[in-house]
């Protein structure tokens, strides 16, 4: 099986770009951030502080997450409920950052992610795919952009959805997520030593997809020659 690991900070476009790449290459797209958002959402619904490691860990036996892959992409089911839209709120975003710092949460989700890569050709995006989840991935990419570029894109997305956060609030959220994700004790976000760094600050969506797809095809070709 071929696995492509795409890591990077919040708002870098990992999920939307990975989804298009998966369509182009005929791979399964796995948005691992959605899994952490789902646990964060469950904790919020239960009234549990998302920074409370013991309380969140105690919730895990109750959590059942299923992924459904449809023509519209990955859908996330929490105890049978499709929460694919609910997990995209700013509150769920910050909750995901909190719970992803808890080692027990990461261990809880690790095998689910690895099982998908064993069974399918995948493009998997997240924060620690190339470093922890799939350290032997066929292709590793660290996708990034400046905080200002990422905030601008997310602000425009939220405006289309009717959300009322200001650009300044979105930028602060991005910077806080960056700090939290790179400073957590459990699997902090960092670029794998053998990952290709792609900065899309000056690229639009189609240009980003084109550049990354070319790199993936080249790396897969090299791996097949070596194999």
Instruction: Work out the number of β strands.
Output: 8
* Distance linking N and C termini: 12 Å
User: Main sheet?
Assistant: 5 strands, parallel
Low-confidence stretches: none
Short account of what is shown:
This protein has nine helices and eight strands. It is of the alpha/beta class and 227 residues long.
Description:
With 227 residues, this protein is an alpha/beta fold. Helix content is 52%, strand content 17%. The strands form 2 sheets. It has a 5-stranded parallel beta sheet with strand order 2-6-1-7-8, with helices on both faces. Strand 3 and strand 4 form a beta hairpin. The model has no long low-confidence stretch (mean pLDDT 92).
Features:
227 residues; alpha/beta; five-stranded parallel sheet; three-stranded antiparallel sheet; 9 helices; 8 strands; globular
Task: Describe the secondary structure blueprint for this structure.
Layout: E1 3-7, H1 14-25, E2 28-31, H2 33-45, H3 53-59, E3 65-70, E4 73-78, E5 81-82, H4 90-99, H5 103-119, E6 122-126, H6 129-133, E7 139-144, H7 147-160, H8 167-183, E8 196-199, H9 205-226
Parallel strand pairs: 1-6, 1-7, 2-6, 7-8
Antiparallel strand pairs: 3-4, 4-5
Helix pairs in contact: 1-9, 2-4, 7-8
